[in-house]
Design a protein that fits this description.
Five copies of one chain form a homopentamer. By secondary structure, chain A is of the alpha+beta class. Chain A has eight helices and seven strands; from the N terminus they run E-E-H-E-H-H-E-E-E-E-H-H-H-H-H. In chain A, a hairpin with a 3-residue loop joins strand 6 and strand 7.
């Protein structure tokens, strides 16, 4: 089934009709049309462009991956690039979504199927009372979906940082290497994520502040709400950076502690072993020291070894070296 | 007793009447009504919303936890989300407080009982002369309470940092691990706290700068005062970050010092033990060295051991290694 | 003697009269009055407040310590909080100074005697030609004194940093612990100092930019001059932070160097001792090695020990390990 | 062939004619002329300057290397300095490009042949439909080429960082020194690159926002597109800095790990060797210990050595020290 | 020869006449006068001040060292403080230059002879065609000289950083201490330099943006050019900070590498020596081990020592420990 929809006076009139029929409705000022193109060929886009009067630069941007959210305002239409994001084990999974917005049409262009268009449709169907706002309503649904996705990623990253925090002071810590890998991945993902998140502020404020006739005042609170979400994600991302930094430095420090502890203990044992060796060395000399060749020598040697070893052990223990 | 109040001409007329009676007063332009809802059901909120003409988005925000202070300006009312904070042993204890502000009504919606509504009521009762300002007076009481709570948290955090600072150079320092845990917790709490504190600046300035008819000029200094507190908390939080950083780095460094000191001492003792071992090794050889099998050997060996050990001890002592 | 002054037409008419007489002059538009209150009781302040028509919020702020410079503009008067600072061995010594500024009166409220009011009076007496500007002249004297105090503190901190810098590369460095204590204290003081200094920019610009009738245009360059000092202190404080950071990191690094040096030397000596031990071990075996029980054995053992020890010493020396 | 072009009414009329003929067309308001000067002598530039009425300061700037992108607006012309960049093994390869822009002429001045003028010409030839915008079209081609070059460098640097990231956790890591060299070079290049990239934002916004009659509204989206690229490069460069920092710190940490691991293992083996030495020391004493001179002594000694060594090995193994 | 000049209609009429004659020309609106005062006494300045109508605050600023560039705009004149800087071995050599700028006079006040006034005169003489702009021309010459000096310092610092960078990976690195001294000095100088450089932006923009009648539009590009230099120096200084940071961290890391390498090698040799010691200990026991007192014992002992030592050597070599 084709990804198309036709609204008239806030009511969904048709759905799933072929894209070819779209042009029938485009010139009807009372109709609002949406259709979706999945990885369209340049030729396909050229046809669409001609019918909707799109700017060649916008078409070019829709064909080439861009990697930064943006909004371009042309005389007859808007062009937006936004990114749906998911957090996978390997890192961020970006899916570019290009949007052409005219007075009565919204075209979504996706570069892959990983951006879930059904979720967007479900959002539209959940708020039918706003459908009367036409294109502004459709656009809001898309942005709301995208920004909620960003929010989920921020939440996921926060959870991962919290897991790291829990591991940090747990009694059975993960190996240094595994933990470092996790910290490294979270930081790297956060850096790449910020490049997607921060420009969204500009995209949404541009939509709201410019004298675009597309967003009616009744929709304004809804766009404000999206903006609020964008701000929260931005601030969250910033604080994630600090939280990971905190984990990182504490981890370094704790590892140092642990190693120093081991070293202290090892050194203490080395001292406890070195002393008997020194004593037996003395009694191994080929010179007539007191007790040389007599049982008295054996007893004094053994007594010295035992006494000093135990004394050292007690002292080290008391000073918390062992 | 229901959490409700009715003011008329700056005088508290009724208190504790059932929420159901609120609607009787709402359409009286001379009455100012406050009521509080604790974890209301969506149905309950829907009723309130209808009577006061609240925006569905604001209702939705009041139902779902949000985790960032904000202010939304709707045509007929304001919606604020603020956070009462307390510092517990485990970290920050947030309690969300949603506020609907209309011309003559203030609705507070709490998600838990941990935000102390009695303290807010006490604040109102302490400044009865301002009650004539109606809703602006009520709202000020709430914000003042919330921001004072932020201030207390900043003060508590500062105290904790000061305790850390005192431990740092004390002669009986806490163990590294315990201190690191404390530093880690303070930093983490500070990061989360900043996410609550910084957006408050925007919330209060929005209230003050926008052409809202709700705040009369006589109340302006009081809101300015709240804003001043918000600023102090913000700046305090920033400097807390630096102070903890200072503690952190100095701690790292001192710990390194202490460990190096131990290592130096251990190495010195190792040297003092190694030398006798080498000498007894010499006298333990099965070859006719001078003194082999004679008392002279014993005396020279013992003299050497004693002399070199004492010499090393003195040298190390002088160089402050022992 | 009471801290009071009465100016008329730029001339100091009376001084040291009791505060009780102040009210006689307050309603004389040609008189300019100053008086000082040291830790006044709330009752005392209430009397003053009534006579001058001060805002209750300002009175409250004057009674409670605040810890952040600020300016509040009320309809009939200004309220300022500024801080006189001194650098003591223990850190910053703050003394809060609250100022009420009306058309023809300046009231200074001090919380302790450590803010030197005589120095302010001396400033006034040094620039009698400006006395004709009345309250603006008096206020300038106070701010000038306070900001000069900030300047002195910045200079003192700079001197302390320079002392640290000199110690850093001196041949007889202070012990690590003492130096760390100093660095720690300077950093901590700098953080707290910045909280006093930075808001001063806002206080002075507010005075200059707002349409306050209190500062006549002839006084403008003098306030500009104060502002310039505030800026210098701010920038100085920022660069202090960097300079201490530089000292801190270099210190860490040098200490590491020194410790590594010691370790290298120790390890070398350990090697030089280990080799003879191994050789004597060989000659201590109860097996007929070449030279067993013969003088030849003794000579070869001694020769080996001497040769290898000297060789190692020379090699280590050449590689700068010893 | 001379680097010259003549456009009339959006059509390329002539190409490759001698620079000497340029002046013939300069006063024809319908002609748009471009010519290129490669390392011109001051005399040569003086001639051009006179014909086009260029400002002496601009001429001076074109003659001396500058090392920072800028735009100067003179009454009759614009002067721009931009930098074509390439990433070589040794670092950044900058090539300065000075641009004089008058109503109907564009002069490009290059300091070396490494800025590829043919690529710019190719760009012009690819978009002939825009040639009717005259100088704005020519200038756009140059800027587009330059900014795309910046983009390529950012991409290359990103690739290099990714290679480092891959090496980081690979099983056969590069030697510390080689990797540090790479990190050092990337960081250094990034710092120098930012000095070229960041001022470009100002250059392009100046072109777009100032009331310059040179850029017609039809060209605006194209300049907006260039600006968008500039922003992407700037943000990319910023995030590169963070990514390298992440690699750097993780590398430090991993190296520390590896070294600590080695130390732990070494210490364990040292302990395993020290114990037999202590035991044989005991049995080497010249005193009648149990088993002295008997086979029983041999067996007990050997059994002790074997038992303790194996026990230590097992314990260390279990604690993951070996 | 006195440092004085008189211009009329853009032509240098007189030079080197005594300062006393200056007042003759001051009231001639067609004359432009410059004179220089080297460390003037307060009395001397008082005379000048009276003749030119200078503000007492400006006079005071000219007499006391200030250490921050600034511009003060008085009704009848401007007052500037700028700093000529040179880089010496000991650090920055500042020389304060105070400037009084009236409609037709420029007074330069120097606190020492190290600011080279001849270089400024040479600049004036090199651009005689601009002399018709009077005071604006003179002031430009001074600022241009000062800012060029800043530029030279930035360049020198950059060179020093580059020398450090080269030493970093050279095969014969400077000793850690010497290199740290250099890094420390560069950082410290950079911090102090920034305090001179950054406020210059404000000084020059103030000159350009304020409605001062002193700078005619023809001179605007020249001041813009100075501003451009100021910006370049500022950005350069910022990037210097990062470059030194890069050197610093890499140096730390490399030194750690080198030390770890040494430790690894030392530990390996220690192990190679410890094993023979253990074996000879075994053969030194006074118990009838196999080969006790026989040649077979000698051969087996020697074989074991040789075999294990060689084996260890080979293994360590293969693992790149030796």
């Amino acid at each position: 089934m084709a990804r198309t929809r036709l609204y008239r006076h806030g009511v969904l009139e048709a759905e799933g009709f072929p894209v070819a029929e779209v042009s029938d409705h485009l010139h009807d000022p009372e109709a609002v049309v949406w259709f979706d193109l999945l990885s369209p060929t340049p030729e396909k886009l050229a046809v669409v462009s001609e019918e909707l009067g799109l700017h060649p630069l916008a078409i070019e941007d829709a064909l080439h991956p861009h990697q930064r959210p943006k909004i371009d305002v042309y005389d007859s239409h808007l062009f937006l690039t936004v990114y749906a994001v998911r957090l996978t084990n390997g890192g961020l999974d970006l899916s570019e979504l290009s949007l052409f917005v005219t007075k009565n049409a919204l075209v979504t262009v996706r570069d892959s199927d990983s951006c879930d268009i059904d979720a967007i449709i479900a959002r539209w169907d959940n708020t039918p009372r706003m459908a009367k706002h036409g294109v502004a309503f459709l656009l809001h649904g898309v942005l709301d979906y995208v920004v909620d996705g960003h929010f989920d990623v921020a939440e996921d990253l926060d959870d991962r940082v919290e897991q790291l925090e829990d591991q940090l002071f747990s009694d059975t810590p993960a190996t240094g290497r595994a933990m470092q890998r996790q910290m490294f991945d979270i930081r790297r993902t956060t850096v790449r994520f910020r490049r997607i998140v921060l420009p969204m502020r500009e995209v949404v404020t541009s939509l709201m502040h410019r004298d675009l006739e597309i967003i009616p005042s009744d929709m304004a609170p809804y766009y404000q709400d999206v903006y609020d979400h964008v701000l929260r994600v931005s601030e969250w991302t910033e604080s994630l950076r600090e939280l990971v930094g905190n984990v990182y430095e504490t981890h370094l420090n704790l590892q140092g502690n642990r190693m120093n502890d081991i070293m202290k203990r090892v050194t203490s044992w080395a001292a406890i072993i070195a002393v008997p060796t020194a004593i037996t060395g003395f009694y191994g000399q080929n010179i007539p020291y007191p007790g040389f060749g007599h049982a008295a020598g054996f007893w004094s040697s053994t007594a010295l070894i035992a006494a000093i070893s135990v004394a050292l052990y007690v002292v080290f223990r008391k000073n918390e070296w062992l």
